[in-house]
Amino acid sequence: MKPKIRPSKVFSFHSLLSIGGFMNQSFRVIFQAASGTYVAVSELTKSKGKTKSSRTVRHAVVAAVLALGSVSAMASESCDLSDGTSGIKNSDGICVIDVSQSPLPGIGARYAAGGGTASDANSVAIGTGARTTLGASGTTGTGVAVGLNSLASQASVAIGPVAIAGVNSVALGNSANAEDSSVAVGTLSIASGATSAAFGRGSHATGDSSVALGFGSVADRDNSVSVGTATAQRQITNLAAGTAATDAVNFGQLTSLSTTTATGLSTAQSNIVNNTNSIANLSTGLATTNNNVTINTTSLSTLSSQINSGGVGLVQVAGAGLTVGALAGGTSVDFTGTAGLRTLTGVQAGSLAAGSTEAVNGAQLSTSNSNITTNTTNISALTTRMGTAESNINDLADQIGSGTVGLVQQAAAGANVALTVGANTDGTEVNFAGTRGARTLSGVADGVAASDAATFGQLTTTNNNVAALDGRVGIAETNITAINTTLADLGAGLNGAVVYNADKSAVALGGVNGTLINNLAAGLVGAGSMQAVNGGQLFSMKADLDAQLQNIIDNADAAIGIIGDRLDGLTGVVGEQGDKLNDLDDRVGTIETGIADGTIGGGGGGVNPAGNAQVGVGADASGKNSSAIGSGAVASGENSTAVGANSSATAKDSTALGADSKATGSNSVAIGAGSVADRDNSVSFGSAGNERQLTNIADGTAPTDAVNKRQLDGAIAGVNDRIDRLDTRVDEMGAMSSAQAQMAMSTAGLLGNNRLGVGIGAQNGQSALALGYQRVYGQGTRTLSFGGAASTRGTVSFGAGAGFAW
User: Fold this and answer.
1) Residues forming a β-bridge with 796
2) Handedness of CA 424, 428, 430, 431 (dihedral sign)
3) What pLDDT band is residue 72 in, cutting at 50, 70 and 90?
4) Cα first-last separation, the chain
5) Which of 3.10.450.50, 1.10.1740.10, 3.40.50.720, 3.30.1300.30 would CATH assign to domain 251-342+714-804?
6) What is the DSSP string of 509-575?
7) Hey, where are the domains in the chain?
8) Rounded to whole angstroms, how far apart are CA atoms 331 and 309?
9) What angle do CA 701, 703, 705 make, to 5 degrees?
10) Residue 298: pLDDT above 50?
11) 30-39, 211-220, 371-380: range with lowest mean pLDDT
């Protein structure tokens, strides 16, 4: 018996991707057979029971870590883990913790666990072999892949083992596959057409902008909606009557068309019967006339009988229904009349059972597009919620990068605004030294104030000036030395007298150890000056040089101190960020420890241990190869799919799309909030009393395609036109029969062997002319006659006869 884990706190799908840091890495979760619970223990503690399958243990660990809110304790003694988390000891003395007590911080802009690979920022990959692909050049991936070997491209979501989602697409379910900008929901569902959608296990949408609804449905034509296959059709139930040209029509509208057609045929039959009765009363005594009338009457009676029974004409009765052009060629029925398109009303909802070729009405497919849009929006909202926490972390990183937060900040926007380092903290030094020693501070502007840092360029200029001054002082010292030497030589040669040398280029003083020159006036210090300088001038120059050097040294020390203080602040920030990264790494490691084979348990959703996709609080995909998406969604039928809050697909191969939708019939599809599909092999867009219109339906072309109101109006117009032409034809026949009768009556009383008669007739706006001739032979024992009639519309009839008497 599997242990029951009862969470005390419900997590959203985003929470599953944000859990971290609630358990120290020195602890693990094991199963206690005695209490039937999963508990957190030291990683050195052995599990009691549940040793048959390591995979089962890994699944249980995931469920315990991600979804366990409160595990029944066997004793009331409290305990604490090393990280400070409180719990209660059970009968085995093991500390049982409630993970719902700890906060669940976000995990960052990129996350991969359980063997998954997240290739780009803002992407998530969970499960063995799960991976996300990089976006286009210069873009962000933002893909989410959850499940064994699942693959999510840019801005896409793939949930389920081997689920594959192309760019801007959604694939939910075991082996679901959605190409770019498409949606595939259900085990083995495939949406390969551009902007296509497949809902239900094994459904295929291969046509561009096509939609396949229900288990095994195939939509292989562009811009089409399929609720079955060529050999397995479904009924569309709860379809409201279509009102626009592209609306689907229901069976009620088709029934109304049948009633209207039957009424028109009945009227035509009545007119024919009236004409027959009138003709039967004409000049029955005239043999030729009787013969002609009998022929006409028989023909009209036969035509009346055939029309009445629906045995002739394009519109015929076949059993309990009507056929239109059953024996004629052509691939369409045109209902258009002289006033334009006609509305075909009263069409009953057509059967969508296997083999059905019945037309459907506007109410049967009214809101599929809006419901699909709603489902896509709900799934997109799930992705938006996942990105919220990641966006917050990215915002913080952007603020640090832009200098609006942290120890190093930019006071305001602009090119000439100063940066501050630790402006709101104390400290008298900035240390730039790192683990590899001192660092070079580059990009420093020349200092202008007493407390500004001096640059290397400024120091170089000063050093050059000092070097130049040293050179000048050296020259002066050399000159003085030469003077002293000359004076000494002079003193030695002239007993202390000051004398020139031979060419008068030097003066020698007579002192043995040198001679002081006192009372020497200050010489000119300038370019080209050859005057001697005195000691006062040299002292003044040295004092000025010492002051300048000291000022440079002081400024450099102050600048280095400020830079050191700033570097100390930066070191603190870097250290703090390093601590956060280490903590994040620990938490990611904890999650990776609890995830295996791409399976996730918990109240928020993901892939359950059976490998079925279930997303949403309380979602339950318990049926084999099923998928449940939405809060409280239930997919308990085999190969079933439930999408939407509180939706349920309980029958085999059933699909429910929309909040509170229910698919209880086998191989049924319920589309839209509150829709109910309780008949096998049916598609429902509403419920009794809450029907919907199915709009924007293209003209049907195949026998099992739905027809729209435009096609129905065209069919009605064609039937009406046919009835109108039949009425006109009957009126023509009546006018011609009346003309022939009048022609015969006009010659009935004539004597002679040659008789010529003329007659005219009219009926309901139609008129005709009849002409006849009779020859009498053998004293009235034999007659020969012939005649004809023509209507104003060009219809012509002709007849001939003979009579004998003896």
Assistant:
1) 790
2) negative
3) very low
4) 111
5) 3.30.1300.30
6) ---TT-----SPPPPP-STT------HHHHHHHHHHHHHHHHHHHHHHHHHHHHHHHHHHHHHHHHH
7) 13-105, 110-228, 251-342+714-804, 406-594
8) 25
9) 60
10) yes
11) 30-39
Task: Name the region of 104 (left: φ>0; alpha: ψ -120 to 50; beta: rest).
Answer: beta
Neighbours of 86 (CB within 10 A): 12
Lowest mean pLDDT among 137-146, 346-355, 732-741: 137-146
110-228 belongs to which homologous superfamily? Serralysin-like metalloprotease, C-terminal (2.150.10.10)
Q: Is the per-residue pLDDT at 716 higher than 90?
A: no
Tokens 């900035």 found at: 430
d(CA 258, CA 237): 20
Nearest to 608 by CA among 617, 599, 618: 599
Stretch among 278-292, 507-521, 569-583, 681-695 having the lowest mean pLDDT: 278-292
Cα gap 328→316, rounded to integer Å? 12
Distance CA 32, CA 255 (A): 67
Mean pLDDT confidence for 620-646: 92
Q: Model confidence over 771-794: pLDDT tens digits?
A: 999 998 888 889 999 999 999 999
Secondary structure of 641-697 as H, E, C letters? EEECCCCEECCCCCEEECCCCEECCCCCEEECCCCEECCCCEEECCECCECEECCCC
pLDDT of amino acid 165: 93
Give the Cα separation of 541 and 82 in Å (integer). 72
Return the residue matching tokens 């506007």.
Answer: 362
Using CB atoms within 10 Å of the CB of residue 104, give its burial: 0 to 12 exposed, 13 to 18 middle, 19+ buried: buried
Cα 514 to Cα 491: distance, rounded to the nearest angstrom: 9
CA-based diameter of the chain, in Å? Answer: 206
Q: Which residue in 378, 334, 470, 425 sits closest to 185, CA to CA?
A: 378
Type and span of the H or E element at 782: strand 782-791
Percent residues over pLDDT 70 in the chain: 59
